[in-house]
Design brief:
The complex is a heterodimer of chains A (486) and B (456). Chain A contains 24 helices and eight strands. Helices cover 55% and strands 9% of the residues of chain B. In chain B, β3 and β4 form a beta hairpin. Classes of the chains: A alpha/beta (486), B alpha/beta (456). At the A-B interface, α6, α7, α10, α18 and α20 of A face α2, α4, α6, α8 and α9 of B. Chain B: Its main location: nucleus.
Chain lengths: 486, 456
C-alpha cells in the first residue's frame, strides 16, 4: 500500500506549491500542469492525504515566496531552463575562479610565452597586407554598393585566413562607428562546429535573433528574410569557415548559402573559407560553383622570412629570444608546412625549456632562449620516436621486428605471413642463443607491436595466417639495434 | 604458531592490495612527469591553454602518470579551486554525442541536471561552445583527459577534437587537452586542420629496456614490505587525498590504503631478509631475465608478482626460488601443445595425417576426404585403429575445427560446399605437433612411429 501511496502524495505536495505560487505570487509555472490535472483525477485521495501531510505544509510555505527576491532565485526545473536557453534568455557561463590570476610580476620569458600563444591575435597580421587589402576592397565595395556577392578564400591550415578576414571585418566595423561606411551585420559560422550541415541554418538564425529553433523552421525564416524585399535592410556579411564540411551529397545547404546573395532583396555578402584551392571544381556541383563565382583568393604558406617576421612581431622588442633561434624555427617550420601555429608553438615550448633548463645557473632576468633550447624543442615537436620505441622494446620484440624485416627481404614482398615470420624467429633465436618463444607468445608480441603501430597486423584469430606489414622502415630497425649493440 | 600464520596472511593481503589498487604510485619517468605537471600547473595558475599527447606502449604507466600528477596537484588548493577535470575514454565514449553529454555533465553546465542532459546533440555542442567562448581568464580552467585518444580520431569529422583543440588555440576559457594513447603514429590520424590546431607536444613513455637491474629492483620492491615509517607516510598521503573527496576521481574511493596494515618489526625484518636472499639466487635471476626478455613493462611484472604472491600460504610462508621458477615455466609453455595433448588418439591421428599432407604438398589446403583417405591408409594396417567408422572420424574432424586447430579457408564458408569437401588449413607448426606426439600420455607406438614418417 505504501508503494501505491507514492504518486498521489507527491502530486499533492506539488499542488500545494503550485497553488501557493500561482495565487500568491502570480508566477507562471509551466511544468506542474500535469500534476494539477492529476489532482483532479485523484480527488478522492485528497482528504486522507492532506490531513496526513499537513505538518509539511507550513514548512513549505515558509521557504518559498516570502520575499520577491527569493522568487527570482527560485530554482527552475531543467525543462524551464532549457526553454530559456532556447529563447536565448539565459546566457551560457563558465564557473568562475576562486582566486584571480596574479597579474603581478612576470619574468621576460613568461611575457614572451604569453605573447607567443596562438590565441593572442595581433591587431594587424604581418605579411598578409596584400590579402588584407584584397578582402577589404571586396567587402567595402559590396557594402558601399549594397549588393550581394561571394568570395572564396583558400589555403593550407595556419596561414592566417580566418584571422585576416575577421581583421578586415573589425576594421570595417570601426569605420561604421565613425560613420564612414553604411552599417552592416556580421554573421559567422564554422562547418566543424556543426553536427550536420543543416544546423548552419540554426546557427545563422541564432546569430540574428538569439533564438534556437529547428532547422526546418530556421530555414523557412531565413528564406523569408532574404527573398522578400524590405526597406532599410542592412547589408549582411556572412563568414562561412570550413566550407567543405557543409558539402553533403545533395549540397542543398551550400546551394542555399550561395543562392541567397543572388537575390536582389538579400543584400548578403558571403565569404567562404576552405583549405583546398580547387574545392569548387572538385566537390561542388556545377550550379553551386557557378554561384560561388570567380572572386577567389589563395593564401600561400608562409616562407621562412615571413615566419621569422611573425615571431619577431609577437615578441615586440623583447630580448627573450636570440635572433638566430627564431631563424632556426622559421626555417625548420617553413620547410615542412609553413604553418604559423606550428612556429609559435615551437617557440613557446622553447621558452618553457629555457625556463626550466637554466634555472639553477642564471638569474631570472637574464634568461634567454638560445639555439640549444630551440633545437631541443624542435627535437620534441617534430619528433619521430620510432627509433626510440624500437630501442626500448624487449629482446623478444626486437627479435620479432628483425624477423619481419628478414622475411620481407627474403620474399621480396611487403606483406608477410605470421607463419613465415615465425620461421625467421626460430632462425634468429637459435643464432642468438635465446630461448624460442612458443607461437602463442609470439602472437602476443605481435599484437603488442601492432597496438604500438610498429607493425600493422590483423586480428590474431587468424593465427598463423595473419598478415603482417612493417610500419617502420627496415633501416630504422637496423639502425636502432645496431647502435644499441655497440 | 598461529601468530606467525596470521602475520603471513596479512602480508599476503598487503602485497596483493598494493599490486592491484595502488593507482597513483609511479616509478621512474622523472622528466616526463615534471613536464606534464608543469603544463597542468600553468594551465591552472596562469590560465594558459595547452594540448599534449602522452604516447607509450601498453602497460607503460601512462594512466598512472596522469593519476599521480593529478593527485600531486590536488593537494594544492589553488589547483583544486580553479580547475575542473573532465575524464573521457574512447572505449566508453564511442561517439561525439555520448562524449559531449559526458562533458556537459562533468562540467556541470546549465543544461545538465543531475546527470541528465537536455537538448539534442547539436544544441549540446552549440551550448558547450558558447560556454567556453563566454569564458576568459577569469573562468576556471578545464582539464580534458582523453584516454584511448586514437579512438576519438575515428569519430565523424573529428568534430570534438577540432573544437577542443580550437578552443585551446583561441582566446576563450583556458583548457588543457591531454590525450593518452598507445599508438605512435596517432598524429597521422588527425585531419589536417585538427593537426594544425594541435600544439605538437608529445610526451613519450617508454619503459627503460636497458637496465635489467632496475627491473630486478622493482621486483624486489614489489614483494618486500616497507618499514613502518614508510607505511605512515603513505597513509598520510592517501588521507590527504581522501580529504578532498573530489568526485572526479573514482579511483580514490577504492584506493590502496596502508592504514589497515601494521606489521611486527621482527617479521618485517625477517621477511625482507628472506627477499634479499632470494634475489641473490641464480634461479630467480634467470627467471626474471626470461620475463624481462619477453616483456619489459611494469604491468607484466606486476601480473607475475601477483600470481607469485597468491601462492603464499600459511603452510608455506616463504617465497622461494623454486616457486618463482615453477611459475615462470607456465609462461614458457605452449598452450596449443597442451590442447593437443588433451585430444583423443583418433583426433591426434587426424592431425598427424594433416601434417603429412602439409609436408608433402607444402601446406596446401585440405578437406575431410583427403585427410580421411590418408588416415584410412594408416588405419587399415594398424592394429588399434581398424574399424573406426567414417562418421566418427568426421565427428573428430569437426571437433578439431571448433577448437580452431584447423581453420576454414574463407570465413564466409560460401554455404554451398558440403562439410566433407570444405577446404581447411592447419593452424599449427610442425614443431608443435612433434612436441605433442612426444608428450602425449600412453600414445600407441604405431601412431608415434607413423608420426615420424608418412610411409606405411
Amino acid at each position: 500500500t505504501r508503494l501505491a501511496d507514492g504518486t498521489p502524495r507527491r502530486s499533492i505536495q506539488l499542488s500545494n506549491i503550485v497553488e501557493q505560487r500561482i495565487f500568491d505570487n502570480n508566477e507562471i509555472i509551466s511544468t506542474p500542469k500535469r500534476s494539477r490535472s492529476k489532482l483532479a483525477d485523484d480527488a478522492d485521495y485528497t482528504p486522507k492525504k492532506s490531513t496526513h501531510k499537513s505538518p509539511g505544509r507550513p514548512r513549505r510555505m515558509s521557504t518559498t515566496g516570502t520575499s520577491t527576491k527569493q522568487k527570482e532565485d527560485a530554482p527552475m526545473t531543467p525543462s524551464q531552463k532549457m526553454k530559456k536557453i532556447r529563447a536565448g534568455e539565459l546566457s551560457p557561463s563558465m564557473e568562475q575562479r576562486h582566486q584571480q590570476l596574479d597579474v603581478g610580476h612576470k619574468s621576460q620569458l613568461q611575457l614572451a610565452r604569453e605573447q607567443l600563444h596562438v590565441s593572442v591575435v595581433p591587431k594587424s597580421l604581418p605579411c598578409r597586407e596584400k590579402e588584407f587589402d584584397n578582402i577589404y576592397s571586396f567587402l567595402e565595395g559590396k557594402i558601399q554598393d549594397q549588393c550581394g556577392g561571394c568570395m572564396y578564400v583558400s589555403g593550407v591550415p595556419g596561414t592566417g585566413k580566418t584571422a585576416t578576414v575577421t581583421g578586415v571585418i573589425r576594421t570595417l566595423q570601426r569605420l561604421v562607428e565613425q560613420d564612414k561606411l553604411p552599417a552592416f551585420e556580421f554573421l559567422e559560422i564554422n562547418g566543424m562546429r556543426l553536427t550536420e550541415p543543416r544546423q548552419a541554418y540554426v546557427q545563422i538564425y541564432k546569430q540574428l535573433t538569439g533564438k534556437t529553433v529547428s532547422w526546418e523552421h530556421a530555414h523557412s525564416l531565413l528564406e523569408k528574410r532574404f527573398t522578400t524585399p524590405a526597406p532599410r535592410r542592412l547589408t549582411t556579411v556572412l563568414l562561412v569557415d570550413e566550407l567543405d564540411i557543409l558539402c553533403n551529397r545533395r549540397q542543398d545547404v551550400v546551394y542555399n548559402l550561395l543562392d541567397w546573395p543572388t537575390k536582389s532583396a538579400a543584400h548578403l555578402v558571403v565569404v567562404t573559407i576552405a583549405n583546398t584551392m580547387d574545392l569548387p571544381e572538385r566537390l561542388l556541383m556545377g550550379k553551386v560553383t557557378s554561384r560561388l563565382g570567380l572572386t577567389r583568393l589563395t593564401f600561400q604558406p608562409y616562407t621562412h622570412k615571413q615566419l621569422q617576421e611573425i615571431v619577431t612581431a609577437r615578441l615586440a622588442g623583447s630580448e627573450a629570444f636570440k635572433g638566430e633561434a627564431v631563424q632556426l624555427v622559421a626555417r625548420k617550420v617553413a620547410a615542412v608546412s609553413g604553418d604559423a601555429r606550428r612556429a609559435l608553438d615551437i617557440c613557446r615550448r622553447a621558452t618553457e625549456i629555457a625556463d626550466t633548463g637554466s634555472e639553477p645557473t642564471a638569474n631570472a632576468a637574464t634568461k634567454c632562449v638560445t639555439m640549444l633550447h630551440v633545437q631541443q624543442a624542435l627535437g620534441e615537436m617534430i619528433a619521430s620516436a620510432k627509433v626510440q620505441a624500437i630501442k626500448n622494446c624487449s629482446r623478444m620484440e626486437q627479435i620479432f621486428l628483425q624477423a619481419v624485416a628478414a622475411e620481407v627481404t627474403r620474399t621480396g614482398v611487403e606483406e608477410t605471413m605470421f607463419h613465415g615470420v615465425y620461421t625467421q624467429i626460430e632462425t634468429i633465436a637459435t643464432f642468438m642463443g635465446v630461448a624460442l618463444p612458443a607461437p602463442g607468445r609470439a602472437l602476443n608480441i605481435c599484437s603488442k607491436l601492432g597496438a604500438e603501430r610498429l607493425i600493422i597486423c590483423e586480428h590474431s584469430r587468424n593465427d598463423l595466417f595473419q598478415k603482417i606489414l612493417l610500419n617502420v622502415s627496415p633501416d630504422d630497425i637496423h639502425y636502432a639495434l645496431r647502435v644499441e649493440g655497440n | 604458531m598461529p601468530e606467525a600464520g596470521q602475520e603471513v596472511i596479512k602480508a599476503r593481503r598487503f602485497l596483493k592490495d598494493r599490486l592491484q589498487r595502488d593507482y597513483t604510485t609511479l616509478r621512474g619517468y622523472e622528466a616526463e612527469r615534471s613536464n606534464v605537471r608543469q603544463l597542468l600547473q600553468r594551465t591552472a595558475e596562469m590560465g594558459e591553454s595547452n594540448s599534449l599527447l602522452l604516447i607509450g606502449p601498453r602497460g607503460a604507466g601512462k594512466t598512472t602518470l596522469i593519476n599521480s600528477v593529478l593527485t600531486d596537484l590536488l593537494e594544492n588548493n589553488a589547483f583544486v579551486d580553479n580547475t575542473l577535470i573532465v575524464h573521457l575514454d574512447g572505449n566508453l565514449h564511442t561517439d561525439d554525442r555520448i562524449a559531449l553529454k559526458s562533458i556537459t555533465v562533468q562540467m556541470r553546465l546549465e543544461n545538465a541536471a543531475d546527470g541528465k542532459v537536455f537538448g539534442s546533440f547539436a544544441e549540446n555542442l552549440a551550448f558547450l561552445l558558447q560556454c567556453l567562448k563566454a569564458g576568459d581568464k577569469k573562468s576556471k580552467s578545464v582539464v580534458f583527459v582523453l584516454e584511448e585518444f586514437d579512438l576519438f580520431c575515428a569519430h565523424h569529422n573529428q568534430t570534438l577534437l577540432y573544437n577542443l583543440f580550437d578552443v585551446s588555440q583561441s582566446a576563450q576559457a583556458p583548457i588543457c587537452v591531454l590525450g593518452v594513447t598507445c599508438r605512435l603514429d596517432v598524429i597521422e590520424l588527425l585531419e589536417k586542420r585538427v593537426k594544425s590546431r594541435f600544439s605538437h607536444r608529445q610526451v613519450f613513455l617508454f619503459p627503460s629496456a636497458h637496465q635489467f637491474e632496475e627491473y630486478a629492483a622493482l621486483f624486489q620492491e614489489l614483494i618486500s614490505i616497507p618499514s613502518s615509517k614508510e607505511l605512515k607516510s603513505n597513509v598520510d598521503r592517501i588521507d590527504s587525498l581522501e580529504l578532498l573527496k573530489s568526485e572526479a576521481f573514482t579511483f580514490q574511493r577504492n584506493h590502496f590504503d596502508s592504514v589497515e596494515y601494521t606489521f611486527d618489526k621482527r617479521f618485517v625484518d625477517n621477511w625482507n631478509k628472506d627477499i634479499s636472499k632470494l634475489m641473490k639466487s641464480p634461479t630467480v635471476e634467470k627467471t626474471l631475465k626470461m620475463l624481462y626478455d619477453f616483456d619489459v613493462s611494469q604491468a607484466f611484472l606486476k601480473m607475475f608478482t601477483f600470481r607469485l604472491v597468491a601462492k603464499i600460504k600459511r603452510e608455506a610462508p616463504h617465497i622461494t626460488a623454486e616457486l618463482v621458477a615453477a611459475l615462470a615455466t607456465q609462461y614458457e609453455c605452449d598452450d596449443k601443445v597442451d590442447l593437443l595433448c588433451g585430444l583423443s588418439v583418433l583426433e591426434l591421428c587426424l592431425i598427424i595425417a594433416i601434417k603429412h599432407h602439409s609436408t608433402i604438398y607444402d601446406r596446401d589446403p585440405f578437406n575431410f576426404e583427403i585427410v580421411f583417405g590418408r588416415f584410412n591408409k594408416f588405419a587399415k594396417v594398424s592394429s588399434t585403429m581398424q574399424g573406426v567408422e567414417r562418421a566418427i572420424v568426421l565427428k573428430a574432424f569437426e571437433h578439431l575445427r571448433i577448437v580452431e586447430l584447423i581453420m576454414p579457408l574463407s570465413n564466409s564458408g560460401l554455404g554451398k560446399v558440403q562439410k566433407e569437401f570444405e577446404m581447411h588449413k592447419l593452424a599449427l607448426t610442425y614443431g608443435q605437433i612433434q612436441q605433442a606426439v612426444q608428450r602425449y600420455q600412453a600414445l600407441p607406438t604405431e601412431v608415434a612411429q607413423w608420426a615420424q614418417s608418412s610411409l606405411i
